[in-house]
Amino acid sequence: MKFVAWLGSIFIRVLHATLRVRHVHAENIESQPQYILAFWHAHLLLMLHSAYRRPIVVMISRSKDGEYIARVFDHYGVESARGSSTRGGTPALREMIRAAREGKNIVFTPDGPKGPPRVAKDGVIYAAQATGLPIVPVAFAAQKKNFCGRGTRWSSRCRSRVHSSSTARHSASLAARMWRKRGNASSAP
User: Fold this and answer.
1) Contact 9, 72 (CB under 8 A)
2) Sign of dihedral through CA atoms 64, 140, 128, 34?
């Protein structure tokens, strides 16, 4: 288990090293003395490298996968309260509220491991009401590198394709507008 957790933390660090990271509106976190972070479950992998402030406690499910995740979080100095909406949620929520009252920041993935995706459950709201802490939503986004961008070796080869595709989009847009005008004109009395 320890080896797998160590390997997982190395994988996340190597993955993070391949990214160009930019924190947008990090002042929303920095301006708060204490807070509740909330992000969707799908963003979990690289949130360990977000601009959060320690000490921090995360709710992690009691499943076998949750155990691996908790051990990886240990390598980052992140504490965990074990429980989820399906198993052990109430004791874990109480543990999170106690941690917040001790001055620690707390983290929720409000849609949980079983979903439905991007539909928040009540735990994060209850914790905010019980502690009086603000909920700070956080997200992670990524995009593929554009090899056709200006200044790359491929840019001269890609320009003709970019130009032709934008011409095609413009033509399709023009055709759609003309079709709508014709449809509106024929339906007029």
Assistant:
1) yes
2) positive
Any residues with CB less than 8 A from the CB of 154 and at least 6 apart, and which?
Answer: 147, 148
What is the model's pTM? 0.66
Report the C-alpha dihedral over residues 7, 13, 17, 19, rounded to 10 degrees: 110
CA separation for the pair 149, 167 (Å, rounded): 18
pLDDT in tens, the chain (189 residues): 778 778 777 887 887 777 777 778 888 778 888 999 888 887 777 777 776 778 889 888 888 888 888 888 888 888 988 887 677 788 889 999 999 999 999 998 888 777 788 888 888 999 999 999 999 888 877 766 665 555 555 444 554 444 444 555 555 565 566 656 665 444 444
User: d(Cα 3, Cα 71) in Å, to the nearest integer?
Assistant: 10
Please name the residue ranges forming H helices in 39-88. Answer: 64-75
d(CA 160, CA 155): 9
Q: Which of 138, 158, 155 is nearest to 43 (CA)?
A: 138
